[in-house]
UniProtKB/TrEMBL annotation:
SMART domains reported for this sequence: HTH_ARAC
Domain HTH araC/xylS-type: 169-267
InterPro entries per record: AraC-bd, Homeodomain-like_sf, HTH-like, HTH_AraC, HTH_AraC-typ_CS, Tscrpt_reg_AraC-type_HTH
Keyword annotations: DNA-binding, Transcription, Transcription regulation
One Pfam assignment: HTH_18
Name used for this protein in its record: AraC family transcriptional regulator of arabinose operon
Organism phylogeny: Bacteria, Bacillati, Bacillota, Bacilli, Bacillales
Length: 272
């Protein structure tokens, strides 16, 4: 069986609704469905109850599960009735997906960070499905596999869906995406809309490390990879990994890896 047959994307698209929309399929949707709410709000049936769905809610339904979606008008801050709901949706199936689905019990909804990495996966699947002539359909098959496994990873990182650890994971994602830039704690706390002290406490409580220590760990790993594999000078590798001061970088690098950046490069390049 080919990769396309074992894991196939049937349709993929993006919708933005400014008019009410309602869909009710009590016998299921015949295929698996990923639906990522990116803008606005709607309601969907989750565990037998119509539930408010907001930006950052990722829904997953199997072929036999009832599916009901209700996009209706709501009051905005000006007291006006408006309809606003945007989402990516992907219908897919295949034997690999069946095996993946049956391997673990998964919820219909998890709260996720709308990171560029996650949105990029959805966008790429939409682009692949729009191609009029596509001699490489297996590309979509690999993308949907990545998305399925990414769903599992996000689920493992959110064992208990609470507002607190959701904010902590937003902070974590921000650090991972911006570690190479010289951001401050104010930038992190502003990103999630809380105070610096609250952000520091939540992150420490959730991950048992500080924001700055986690940032340092990521920057050191980035620098290590660039020292080994890139043609950059040691100073360029440090700067591009978020270290503005080479003396400081040299000190923390030696403390972490037990040797200077120069010694590290010589030893590891000899092993390539």
């Amino acid at each position: 069986m080919s990769i396309v047959e074992s894991c196939q994307v049937l349709t993929a698209g993006y919708s933005f609704h400014r008019k009410p929309f309602y869909s009710n399929q009590p016998d299921g949707i015949k295929n698996y469905l990923f639906r990522l709410q990116t803008d606005g709000r709607c309601k969907a049936r989750i565990n037998g109850k119509m539930t408010r769905i907001e930006a950052g809610d990722l829904l997953l339904f199997s072929p036999t599960e009832p599916y009901e979606l209700d996009i209706h008008s709501e009051l905005n801050s000006m007291g006006e009735q408006i309809v606003e709901s945007g989402d990516y949706h992907i219908f897919f199936g295949g034997s690999w997906v069946d095996e993946w689905w049956n391997h673990h019990k998964r919820p219909n909804r998890i709260k996720v960070q709308l990171s560029e990495a996650l949105l990029g996966l959805f966008r790429q699947l939409v682009i692949e499905q729009r191609r009029m002539s596509n001699p490489y359909p297996e590309i979509s098959s690999y993308y949907i596999r990545i998305l399925c496994l990414e769903f599992d990873r996000m689920l493992s990182e959110h064992p208990i869906a609470t507002h607190h650890n959701y904010l902590a994971y937003q902070i974590k994602n921000y650090i991972e995406e911006n570690a190479s830039s010289n951001f401050k704690l104010d930038d992190v706390s502003s990103h999630v809309g809380i105070s610096v002290s609250r952000a520091v406490h939540l992150f420490k409580e959730t991950f048992d490390t500080s924001i700055m220590q986690y940032t340092l760990d990521i920057r050191l790993n980035m620098a290590r990879e660039r020292i080994i594999f890139s043609p950059m000078s040691l100073e360029q590798a440090a700067e591009s990994s978020g270290f503005a001061n080479y003396t400081y970088f040299h000190r923390v690098f030696r403390s972490r890896f037990g040797m200077s950046p120069k010694e590290f490069r010589v030893i590891h390049r000899e092993q390539l």
